[in-house]
Every structure is written in C-alpha cells, then in structure tokens.
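Inverse folding, one chain.
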C-alpha cells in the first residue's frame, strides 16, 4: 500500500495548489486525477483572478508566466439601456484583477509540482474513501485497470462538483443549500482581438451578454441562453449577431467578430454544503460549493479554501495544533457565503428573468441605476469583484 501525509483527490486548481503549498512546507501529498494531464491542461474555464489569487500565485513562486502573459485589469463596464457605465475597481479599492485562463494556472501548477518531484497520478480514478474516522484514512483508486490504495493522515476532497468525496458521506452528514437558475450561458472562444480593453457586462432585454478575453488576440464571449440550449444549433453568424445586438451601446461600440474556436453551454447554479469536514476528510473548491459564473469566483474561492486548510495542516504537522483543522469549515464558509451572495446578486442584477413581474423589472432597473451612480454602491460592487480578504 502507498502512503502519504495528505491524499488529494483531483488535479484542478484546488488539489494542485494544495499539493504545492504543502510541499513548500515539507508536507508530502499524492494527487490522484481521473483524467489525463492533457485533458486538465486544455479544459477551458473562467479566466478572471482576484487580487488575492494573483498575490498567492506570486508569493508561492508560480506567478512568473501569469505576470508575463496575463492582462491586468482596473475596472469593468456595466452596460444597460444601451448606455455604458464604468466601475473603476482599482480607484475604489486599491486592488486590480488579472485575466489569465484557469487552465494556464493549472499548467503552471502541474509544471511546478512535477519539477519539484511531486506525485500527480493521472488517469487514476478514486473509487472510494475508507476509515475517515480513524487515524489512517485510505483512498481506493483505479489505475491501469488495477485497484490500489493510499493510506494517509488526511484526505483532501478536491474532486470538483461531480467527484466521489461528497457523495461518499453518509446521508445526513451534510446540509445542502442549492439554487438553480432558469438560464445558462453559451460561451465562445474566438480568434479576434477583444473589442474593449475591459470586461463588458451587458443587461439587455434579450438577455445578458459578457465580453471578456484571454489575450490581446483571443476573445471570450458569453450569451444568456436556455439552461438546456444546444450549442450546435447556433451558427457562428447567429452567435455574433446576437452578441452584437446585446452588446450595442449609444457610443458607437463595434463588436469585432472572428473565427469561433470553441463553444459550449454552462449551467448556472449556486450550491454549498456544510460542514466542509467529516472526520479526516476535508472538502475544498467545487467539491463543496458552486457559484454561477457571473463574477468568475469559482477558482478564487477554491484557492481561499486551500490557503485556510494548508495553514491548518502546517500548524498540525509542525505544532500538533489541531485548532485550525477544527475551525477550517467555519473559517472557509464565511468567505464562501459572501462570494455566494455576490455571485447570486450580480447574476440577479445582470440577467433577464423571463417570469419577473413588472415590479421586479423596475427593481432591477433601479438597482442598476443605483449601482452605477452611487459611489458607495460602486465601492461595494468593486470590493467584492476584486475579492474580499481571507478572514
Ligand atoms: N478521482 C480522481 N479525480 C477526480 C475524481 C475521482 N473520482 N472525480 C473528479 N476528479 C477530478 C476531475 O477530473 C477534476 O480534474 O477532480 C478535478 C476537480 O477539479 P475542478 O473541477 O477544476 O475543481 P476545483 O479544483 O475545485 O476548482 C474549482 O474549477 O470548476 C471550476 O469554476 C470552477 O473555477 C472553479 C474551479
Ligand atoms: C471569463 O473570462 O471567462 C469570465 C470573466 C468574468 C466573468 C465570468 C467569466 O464574470
């Protein structure tokens, strides 16, 4: 049987960052990943990093490529009623954001772990977790058609929303808080320079649209659509036409189109389980909580969980002090819930809700007006957008 200190299930941002931070402190881990390295490195996800995540990457020595290739952003544009309103995030908060694709972060973390001799087992699917209440919990996994086991001190469930850790817990061990939105996002990646330097969030009567980017020559755009929309039913021309309509403004904004390299539909949901610990199993990132993509908090929240747990593990291994492990769930959840609130709020503010009453539509319009005209309201948006402190 293999043995490690921390057994990590999942090589997404959560699992990889945890393994990296622990290694810097001399704590051993093994990361199990069901997919291939290529798969996790190519998986297109959101690409907006909070100030905190940018600083984290720098401080732990994996920020060099991000600093070379990432795009620093100081504000965003909210567009509604055909008018554009800039929120000067850096002026209001002193913090900036970085556009850098999540899969690029994953590539950098994998490279750092492998260069340091770290163990990431690809195509190794965890199939069960045992002895969670003992001193030696175990992960059963399958690789090359063989079932094997790893014995550890702690298991970190970083296996995303569809992983095995959360469902492995006994009924009643967790409380689920869940909200499903009546729409999805049709997202495209296109080989064309972004038509605006900053992100544009548009609330249009035909539905929400977002202009974002990956590099000076690659645009990423999203359209609100039905939750079960068939992306293939949309021709490239139809996507560009719809984006042009929803992103139009009264100042002559022109949306440049180009070849669409990739398209897909994302579901929209808010989801949290409590607590984030069961015996020697700790849940982190998407395994424990999901936010709708508005505001792109997913990876940032995963990193916040990782920082809280890694500090707790360092105290536990160095000083045999388990207080941090005992408070992990409560500490991480405070930030999780605030990001849940913000993602839900920004989603509610920017989307078209088909069944909204005329009163509710007026409320949304009044809120848009308020948030773009009151410095206090803009500051609230900006401080949540750039990211709240850890504590
Ligand atoms: N065994 C091994 N690996 C598994 C298993 C399993 N049984 N189940 C899932 N995994 C792997 C998945 O293949 C995936 O690579 O766990 C990884 C989980 O990674 P993510 O889904 O990226 O989750 P997380 O690391 O928490 O990152 C959160 O990712 O989903 C986005 O928007 C989300 O940005 C957020 C971030
Ligand atoms: C993205 O770049 O994919 C992105 C950016 C901001 C969001 C959502 C997604 O609010």
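Residues assigned per position:
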């Amino acid at each position: 049987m293999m043995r490690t200190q921390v057994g990590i299930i999942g090589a997404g941002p959560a699992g990889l960052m945890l393994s990296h931070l622990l290694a810097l402190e001399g704590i051993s881990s093994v990361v199990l990943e069901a997919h291939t390295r290529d798969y996790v490195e190519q998986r297109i996800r959101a690409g907006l990093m909070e100030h905190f995540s940018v600083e984290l990457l720098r401080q732990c020595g994996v920020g060099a490529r991000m600093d070379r290739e990432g795009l620093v952003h100081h504000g965003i544009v909210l567009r509604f009623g055909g008018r554009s309103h800039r929120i000067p995030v850096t002026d209001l908060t002193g913090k900036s954001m970085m556009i850098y694709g999540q899969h690029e972060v994953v590539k950098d973390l994998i490279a750092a772990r492998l260069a340091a001799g770290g163990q990431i087992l690809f195509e190794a699917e965890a199939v069960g977790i045992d002895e969670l209440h003992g001193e030696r919990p175990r992960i059963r996994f399958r690789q090359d058609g063989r079932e094997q086991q790893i014995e550890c001190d702690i298991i970190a469930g970083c296996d995303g929303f569809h992983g095995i850790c959360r469902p492995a817990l006994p009924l009643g061990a967790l409380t689920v808080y869940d909200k499903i939105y009546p729409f999805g996002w049709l997202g495209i990646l296109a080989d064309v320079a972004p038509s605006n330097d900053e992100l544009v969030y548009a609330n249009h009567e035909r539905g929400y649209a977002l202009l974002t980017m990956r590099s000076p020559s690659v645009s990423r755009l999203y359209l609100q659509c039905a939750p079960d929309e068939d992306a293939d039913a949309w021709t490239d021309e139809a996507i560009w036409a719809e984006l042009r309509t929803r992103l139009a403004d009264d100042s002559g904004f022109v949306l440049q189109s180009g070849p669409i390299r990739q398209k897909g539909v994302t579901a929209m949901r808010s989801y949290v389980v409590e607590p984030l610990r069961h015996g020697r199993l700790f849940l982190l990132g998407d395994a424990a909580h999901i936010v709708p993509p508005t505001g792109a908090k997913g990876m940032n929240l995963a990193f916040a969980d990782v920082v809280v747990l890694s500090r707790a593990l360092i105290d536990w291994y160095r000083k045999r002090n388990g207080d941090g492990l005992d408070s992990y769930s409560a500490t991480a959840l405070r930030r999780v819930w605030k990001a849940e609130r913000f993602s839900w709020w920004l989603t509610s503010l920017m989307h078209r809700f088909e069944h909204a009453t005329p009163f509710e539509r007026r409320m949304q319009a009044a809120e848009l007006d308020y948030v773009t005209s009151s410095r206090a309201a803009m500051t609230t948006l900006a401080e949540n957008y750039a990211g709240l402190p850890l504590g």
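The mean pLDDT is 97. Residues 9-15, 32-35, 40, 45-46, 102, 125-126, 158-160, 163-164, 285-287, 298-299, 302 surround adenosine-5-diphosphoribose (ligand 1) (CB under 6 Å).
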